[in-house]
Amino acid sequence: MTANSILSVRNLQKHFGGLKAIDTVSFEVNKGETLGVIGPNGAGKTTLFNTICGVYEPTAGEVLLGTQAIHGLKPHQIARLGVARTFQISHPFRDMTVLDNVIMAMGGSHYTGLKGIFSISRTHDNISKAEALLAKLHILAQRDKRAGDLSLGYMRRLEIARALALEPKLLLLDEPCAGLSHDATQEFIDIISQLKATGTTIMLVEHNMAIAMTVCDRLVVLNYGVKIAEGPPAAIKNNTLVIEAYLGRDDDIA
Ligand SMILES: Nc1ncnc2c1ncn2[C@@H]1O[C@H](COP(=O)(O)OP(=O)(O)O)[C@@H](O)[C@H]1O
Ligand SMILES: [Mg+2]
Q: Most buried in the list 35, 220, 225, 235, measured by CB within 10 Å?
């Protein structure tokens, strides 16, 4: 482990029956960096993501946050320790405003127990913190909209604002640009670059090589569950194994 390491993945394995979706993968995420995990469809990216955040228990291996082992913990425990991930917004939150969704994620709410209603504490402090997060994600203008009425691109940004609400040590993103238009993707790339500039440590799981090359400092490449390369984008771009992995699956390398 390097002195700068926030997350350390060591000899991680996740098998589904006989399928080695993750096969003895090791890497580090360093403080302040944006690490990309790329690879063709079916390479094991989402499985890696889910194994890190506790959705799956690893078949073998370790995941450390700083020096603390987090593998085997439940997703909410891992989240509380500082690994934030985005979720699809669950149904009740769709009826709340964008601003209230962020205040809730900050812990600025309590459950009344009455018909599943949450009471939101809209203190001056909570509101200004939530507004700052919305501004960071370029959705402050949407603050009073019903979350359920947002476009896909804005919904994704709201999810990230919610993930950042607990000031995590590490932000995990799984294909945040999937399904977005060219313009929405470009704006997303700007937002991620700005998050980086303000010190957020990010692990970005991304199928699209061009997006990963643009925003990531370093890339880990998976193919059939195996790490086939690791390094800065410029080196990965010319790596024969990587090019063959993408071409071999008939995927777009662009
Ligand atoms: N819950 C699961 N049960 C069985 N097989 C799975 C499961 N999740 C993923 N897989 C398999 O594991 C491999 C890796 O999948 P995935 O992690 O989704 O890849 P990626 O995100 O890189 O496209 C694929 O062969 C997929 O079919
Ligand atoms: Mg995936």
A: 220
